[in-house]
């Protein structure tokens, strides 16, 4: 099997592509995979470090701040299209898989026009511009959130979920308690704001440490590199550190989720997929500058289902967060129900379902090509 993977700009598009690529290699060890991205996006570092061949085209996200900048972005599309066309012609893939982001648009578009099979995966409840534009042309569309189906042709669309790392599924609370040196049977709050942290979340939590400690709540807090030193110094100076574990970044995130009775975090698709397969209820604070406010759409979907509470970033402060936490602590049945609903939203077979669809598309190509 020969596969072109494309998607980039942010980790939300890159990591699902890598998960799918690794899944392809596990199922079809002789598969040949190349990634197509840009020289400017995060993928230029992440993909080669993951061991996959990486090719580049010219592409730029649509800048809506002015007509001049928007026009400059649009002018790169035909250039990227012809560059992608040359890569596709040379590589001759069985299928092109796009996971969104501006780089995926010219690649998947070129593949479709050239009559190659194409599959796209949309991570968010509100699909990105690239995937919305590609939906009518792609052979199959795979979704994380059912709500996104309204933007795509029904007969080609399947809700698969988003692949999560195997260790997210297998980590146990016992090993997590040992790793963090916390009590296995004590209520544990896990707070994180993405790889760079979230200053507004950190500020709200910083003022709650004494209250959490007084209520016997354990806290695992991932602050982000930028805020870590100041927060650590502040908390240590108060002496309330016995039940608090603070990290700038946590490579063993699966252990934090295994320990979590409640999470306070952003609402990126990957984060929500990991919370869901673990059944962790959450207070979600959507990142306000996400493209087209898609994180709030993700969060509202889970809020509507009853799996999460939502606080808009600009309204988050110590008092608001404390009220939400206390609301759940004072209603253990509701908290338990939220966890059950979150678990029901999880799709632990997401990767297998995605690979099944890719296989179906490739097999359909073989049937067409055979005399």
Taken together, the total number of domains comes to: 2
Question: Per CATH, which architecture of the largest domain?
Answer: 3-Layer(aba) Sandwich
Main sheet: which strands, in order across? 3-2-1-4-5-6-7
Rg calc: 22 Å
What is the straight-line distance between the termini?
19 Å
Which CATH top level class of the largest domain fits? Answer: Alpha Beta
Helix count, per DSSP? Answer: 16
Quick one: biggest sheet? 7 strands, parallel
Order of helices and strands: EHEHEHEHEHEEHHEHHEHEHEHEHEHHH
Strand content: 5-15%
Helices and strands: which structural class?
A: alpha/beta
Shape: elongated
- In CATH, the homologous superfamily of the largest domain goes by the name Glycogen Phosphorylase B
Strand element count:
13
| Percent range of helical residues | 40-55%
Short summary of the structure?
The chain is α/β, with parallel strands linked by helices.
């Amino acid at each position: 099997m020969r596969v072109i993977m494309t998607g980039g700009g942010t980790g939300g598009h890159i990591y699902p592509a890598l998960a799918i690529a690794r899944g392809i290699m596990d199922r079809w060890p002789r598969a040949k995979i190349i990634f197509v991205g840009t020289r400017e996006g995060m993928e230029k570092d992440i993909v080669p470090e993951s061991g996959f061949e990486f090719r580049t085209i010219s592409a730029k996200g649509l800048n809506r701040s002015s007509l001049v900048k928007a026009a400059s972005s649009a002018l790169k599309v035909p250039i990227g299209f012809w560059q992608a066309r040359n890569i596709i012609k040379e590589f001759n893939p069985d299928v092109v898989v796009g996971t969104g982001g501006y780089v995926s648009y010219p690649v998947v578009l070129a593949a479709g026009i050239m009559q190659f099979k194409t599959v796209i995966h949309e991570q968010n409840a509100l699909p990105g511009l690239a995937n919305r534009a590609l939906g009518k042309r792609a052979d199959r569309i795979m979704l994380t959130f059912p709500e996104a189906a309204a933007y795509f042709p029904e007969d080609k669309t399947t809700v698969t979920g988003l692949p999560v790392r195997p260790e997210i599924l297998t980590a146990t609370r016992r090993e997590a308690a040992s790793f963090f040196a916390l009590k296995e049977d004590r209520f544990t709050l896990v707070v994180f704001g993405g790889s760079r942290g979230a200053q507004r979340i950190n500020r709200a939590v910083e003022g709650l440490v004494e209250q959490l400690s007084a209520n016997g709540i354990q806290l695992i807090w991932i602050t982000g590199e930028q805020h870590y030193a100041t927060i650590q110094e502040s908390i240590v100076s108060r002496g309330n550190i016995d039940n608090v574990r603070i990290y700038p970044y946590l490579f063993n995130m699966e252990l934090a989720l295994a320990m979590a009775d409640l999470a306070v975090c952003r609402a990126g698709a990957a984060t929500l997929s990991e919370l869901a397969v673990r059944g962790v209820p959450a207070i979600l604070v959507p990142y306000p500058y996400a493209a087209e406010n898609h994180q709030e759409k993700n969060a509202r979907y889970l809020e509507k289902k009853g799996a999460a509470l939502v606080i808009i970033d600009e309204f988050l402060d110590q008092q608001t967060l404390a009220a939400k936490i206390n609301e759940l602590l004072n209603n253990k049945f509701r908290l338990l129900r939220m966890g059950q609903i979150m678990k029901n939203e999880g799709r632990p077979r997401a990767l297998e379902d995605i690979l099944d669809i890719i296989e179906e598309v490739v097999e359909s190509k073989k049937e067409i090509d055979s005399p």
